[in-house]
Amino acid sequence: MTTMKLTTRVIPTLLLKNNGFYKGVKFQNHKYVGDPINTIKLFNDKECDELVILDITATLENKKPNFELLKDIAGEAFMPMGYGGGLNTIDDIRTIFSLGYEKIVLNTSAIVQPELIGIAAKEYGSQSIVVSIDVKKTLFNDYMIYSKAGTQKTKNNLAEHIKKVIELGAGEILLSNIDHDGCMCGYDVKLINMITKYASVPVIASCGAKDIEDFVLAKQNNASAVAAGSMFVYQGPHKAVLISYPSYNILLEKLGEPVK
What we know:
Layout: E1 4-6, E2 9-17, E3 20-25, E4 28-34, H1 36-45, E5 51-55, H2 67-76, E6 81-84, H3 90-98, E7 103-106, H4 108-112, H5 115-124, E8 129-137, E9 143-147, E10 152-153, H6 158-168, E11 172-177, H7 189-198, E12 203-206, H8 212-220, E13 225-228, H9 230-233, E14 234-235, E15 240-241, H10 248-255, E16 256-258
Parallel strand pairs: 2-5, 2-13, 5-6, 6-7, 7-8, 8-11, 11-12, 12-13
Antiparallel strand pairs: 1-16, 2-3, 3-4, 8-9, 9-10, 14-15
């Protein structure tokens, strides 16, 4: 009898705005989907692998993270969590880790003050540092990096940026194609495959998943983990809010590999 193990992490991404969780389409038109504490309790019940919480207003409004709310969330969560949004100093990062979060996610900071990656990695280890990269495809079929929750174009070259953040100490890349966000049209597997060929750290595929088959396709294109939002908070063609997460047995059947 062959024993299987789940080798691909499946990560709901929850967008924090003010005191609630929201979901948008292409990083816009965000709609309320739930109270953070109740949502975390539901993911606890469904034995979720891991969660990532991203504050989508902190950087735009030049605010610090809502540490009190994040503390309450961490107190309810049974699974490992990562947090990103408004992390501009090592003191902010230290506070997030002190609240019980296992990882921090840097996006705009990784562009405007990349030295923060190295400072945090030296103190907490590369395995705890995720760099989030948000891109859009250009008319010339290459990819442009955006910062500040997808609102600001940058001049950073994608390949060079990834190489730089990894050299500085990033242990994972959270890769998002903004045009696929919330559309449930599948991941940009061409982008995933391209990035994983020269990224020497695990790549988390994000934006576009509609079902487990999309997870399988991302894995086949070398993603080490998969993240999704709409798939876990909406149900049906009218997008009724319903928190869901596949059972371990289903994930094992689709994403498992034989134990070596």
